[in-house]
Design goal:
- The chain folds into 3 domains: about 1-100, Rossmann fold; about 115-120 and about 215-330, 2-Layer Sandwich (D-amino Acid Aminotransferase, Chain A, domain 1); about 130-205, Dna Ligase, domain 1, CATH 3.30.1490.
- Helix content is about 35%, strand content about 30%.
- It contains 9 helices and 17 strands.
- The chain has helices at about 15-25, 80-95, 110-115, 135-145, 185-200, 260-265, 270-295, 325-330, 335-365, and strands at about 1-5, 30-35, 45-55, 60-65, 70, 100, 130, 145-150, 160-165, 170-175, 180-185, 205, 220-225, 235-240, 255-260, 300-305, 315-320.
- The strands form 3 sheets. It has a 6-stranded mixed sheet with strand order 4-3-2-1-5-6. It has a 6-stranded antiparallel sheet with strand order 7-12-8-9-10-11, covered by helices on one side. It has a 5-stranded antiparallel sheet with strand order 15-14-13-16-17.
- Helix 1 (about 15-25) crosses helix 9 (about 335-365) and helix 4 (about 135-145) packs across helix 5 (about 185-200).
- The longest helix has about 35 residues, at about 335-365.
- About 30% of the residues are buried.
- The structure holds adenosine-5'-diphosphate and magnesium ion.
- Adenosine-5'-diphosphate binds near residues 147, 159, 251 and 316.
């Protein structure tokens, strides 16, 4: 019997997911727990959280040792609690006796450098770190329209576009499903605005690509890859996310809609379909390999792929804590595998870990005989 722990700052956010996984856990001889990193007693290392009771199909308060297998589903905002939680997670991940099913990814700038130096570089959007206003405005001068993204952002939060038409610089942001566009009265004010956002967060800048459909709605392909019970990467599903006409974002949290991948595929030139599918296949096989050559192992990734009007593909973002909504909504048959995958992969890792430890102990005791 193994114990499995979902770690999250607010279990309510993914209550349905955690519960669906937990309902399937007895089949794998696994007990499920969920807790926040801030609820680990620093002295006893006992956790105050919840245990899933399969007989009653519900979570109940419980105190327990740190589970054998850990699944990090923490999403950090900027408040103090998150900073504290982040520090605790760092400590947990550095403990060699604990087993995480995935180790997370570094920020977008770090990831960009890795991908830009790999054989997937043709799919990577030119990216610069935002250092100061002069450099950013000169990038804008060359590109005419650029996107600024927080280096450690997600869900489209904090993203803004800058556009230069004639001598006018405008900023476009999407907030609560509204597209807000305003022009800076002067270059000095634009400079001040860049300096101001730059002091709050680190940003990167990219050319703003025309990744839109015929109705001028931004869209992208979201692909969810996970490891199976043998530790092999498999695709769980892919779907299309579509934002608003003349908008910037295709994030679901920014209000985008989902659509099955094949619907979109049927809308493009049939002669180009095979080539496109092969290219996507190449991306989804290469990407996890490149990432795991550089960073610690992962259990899952969500890849955002932008499609330009000439059907060229662009890797926009790689998420190590992906959502499941696109796949659940567009590939209903994938549902069961989504709920069993963390248990199957987690159990495989735990068995491997145990065997590794046993063989280490055996070698060690033989050596000492
Ligand atoms: N270079 C770009 N050009 C045009 N649109 C982009 C570009 N980069 C991102 N986007 C749009 O913004 C969305 C969010 O960007 P992304 O890099 O995925 O950040 P986040 O981590 O906030 O999701 C993308 O899904 C896409 O719709
Ligand atoms: Mg994204």
């Amino acid at each position: 019997m193994y114990t499995f722990g979902f770690i999250s700052l607010n279990p309510k956010i993914e209550n349905n997911y955690f519960t669906e996984v937990a309902k399937r856990s007895p089949h794998y001889d696994i007990e499920c727990y969920r807790f926040s990193p801030t609820n680990i007693n620093p002295v006893t290392h006992l956790v105050t959280g919840e245990k899933f009771y399969p007989d009653h199909q519900e979570w109940r308060s419980h105190e327990f040792p740190i589970p054998d297998i850990l699944y990090d589903r923490c999403f950090y905002a900027d408040h103090a609690l998150a900073k504290n939680a982040l520090a605790i997670m760092k400590w947990l991940k550095n403990r060699r006796d604990l087993l995480f099913i995935g180790h997370g990814l570094p920020n977008k700038w770090n990831l960009y450098q890795t991908l830009a130096n790999s054989n997937l570089s043709p799919y990577v959007v030119k990216t610069i770190p935002v250092k100061d206003a002069i450099q950013t405005l000169s990038f804008l001068e060359n590109e005419k329209k650029i996107i600024l993204k927080p280096v450690s952002g997600s869900g489209g939060m904090g993203i803004a576009c800058l556009e230069k038409e004639n001598e006018t610089i405008s900023v476009i942001v999407e907030k609560q499903q509204q597209i807000l566009r305003s022009s800076f009265p002067s270059i000095t004010i634009a400079q001040k605005w860049i300096e101001k956002i730059r002091t709050k967060k680190e940003y990167l800048a990219q050319p703003f690509l025309q990744l839109v459909d015929q109705a001028k709605r931004p869209f992208d392909i979201r692909i969810l890859l996970q490891k199976d019970g043998n530790g092999q990467w498999v695709e769980r599903g892919r779907g299309i996310r579509t934002g608003q006409t003349n908008g910037v974002l295709s994030n679901l949290s920014a209000g985008a809609d989902t659509e099955p991948f094949h619907n979109w595929l049927n809308s493009i030139d049939p002669k180009k379909i095979d080539f496109l599918k092969k290219e996507i296949e190449e991306l989804t096989t290469q990407l996890p390999k490149i990432i795991e050559q550089t960073y610690p192992p992962l259990f899952e990734i969500g890849i955002d792929i932008g499609v330009a009007q000439d059907l060229s593909l662009w890797i926009l973002d790689v998420n190590s804590k992906p959502g499941r909504k696109v796949v659940l909504e567009t590939v209903p048959l994938a549902q069961e595998s989504l709920y069993t995958a963390p248990l199957e992969y987690g159990r495989m890792l735990a068995l491997q870990h145990e065997q590794g430890r046993k063989s280490y102990e055996k070698t060690f005791s033989n050596r000492n005989q």
